[in-house]
Amino acid sequence: MKQVFIKPTVWVIFVFLLGMYSCKKQSASINQTTIQKQKPNVILFVSDDHGKDALGCYGNPIIQTPNLDKLAAEGVLFNNAYCTSASCAASRSVILTGLYGHATGSYGHVHDYHHFSTFKNVKSLPVLLERAGYTTARIGKYHVAPESVYHFQEVLKADPRNTVEMAEQCEGILNSEKPFFLYFCTDDPHRGAPFKPEKWDMPNNFGNKKEGYAGVKTKVYDPEDVIVPEFLPDTKQTREEIAEYYQSISRIDQGFGKLMKMLEASGKIDNTVVIYISDNGMAFPGAKTTVYEPGIQLPCIIKNPKLSVKGLENNAMISWVDLTPTILDIASVDYKPERFHGHSFKDVIANPKAEGWNEIYASHTFHEITMYYPMRVCRSGKYKLIWNTAYRLEYPFASDLWASSTWQGIYRNHKEYYGSRKVTDYLFRAEFELYDLSSDPWESKNLATDKKYDEILEGLKSKLKTYQQKTKDPWIIMWDHDSSMQGSGVNL
Fold first, then answer.
1. Is position 184 within any domain?
2. Do the domain assignments include residue 300?
3. Is residue 74 part of a domain?
4. What is the pLDDT of residue 324?
5. Residues 6+ apart with CB under 8 A from 120
6. What pTM was estimated for this model as a whole?
């Protein structure tokens, strides 16, 4: 066999080049690790059916929410933050995709026979963050499908009514070596089972138990002390239910406080963005499942430790459809803005005078599958237009809201008014509802038939049509049988 000899000088060059490559590769690895560690962690804390009405930092002097109030004092509180659909599953799909539910098939509830699921080609926030090197984890209420679209690497288990226990289960993720995204979702203050009480006038428990929850100090409220929003009837039944609702929220606050203490103990509080929101408004008729302000204008508190602002109130109009691109932007993850219906408001958080953030849209189609009542909304400045495409139908009720003692007290006693609105106007709605929120914040005076507002009405209708076209809303067909979004009905 012929032997091959390599000159010593060639060996020297080879070894030198190999060493250079190895050092370069190691250096690149170290740089990548450093970059990953510098990326901010993100906690997205989502409560279930919590309105702006029940937080100290939003002006309620009765309810005790010291930990969330502290978050607002250390961060930014948004006064005009909106979900796009006041229904749990539909809202959560938007939060995690940056797309309106009418464009992703997420029309309503996922569970049981409702079975609304997101199209499989959608890429959700946790999937995109995982690709960017984040550890992703969720705990508590999920309520979206399919899992392949909304995949999290870790699924943590705890009683979703006990936020203290939930926080304790998050220790591992808080101490992750990689940057983390924690999706923390409570069942509180959603109404608790059974939805239909033994006696019609008994208040729902809102998840509260006489024996309480381990690690949680039960805070009980006197019905006489609670604040009844103007859109609700001020009755014995309403006050009793609001007292239970408050108690459930105080439980959320304790768990949130526990989570923040654990975050501080982990040493990562100065590199973790914390966002507190709710999926939709309080679970009372006139809020949840509606597109009235109590149903869709929600709490949003953001603390970004990299920003110097503290205790700032921001009046920019933002929407849950903006959350995914905003979080990706905060995390310095490359993304294509055109893939989302929402827009990043990262640069708006500390800038309450930012221009152009004065318009939002909402899109509700179903809650339960038996609640078909498509509504589309445009709020532009002080004016808000609601388009009830199924206005010929009686407005449907979610099963838990119909059984509520708050509603039954009005229904059984044949009262004319439900809060600031006539019962007949609540059940039988006009095709178009136009409100000036600056003078009519509770949306009790419909201006759509007032000739003085014809120009404003037509302008908002035009905005709605454009929005539906841009977001591929199938319900655009309701405008003059416009079938431009309809398929052929044939599988090719």
1. yes
2. yes
3. yes
4. 98
5. 146, 148, 149
6. 0.92
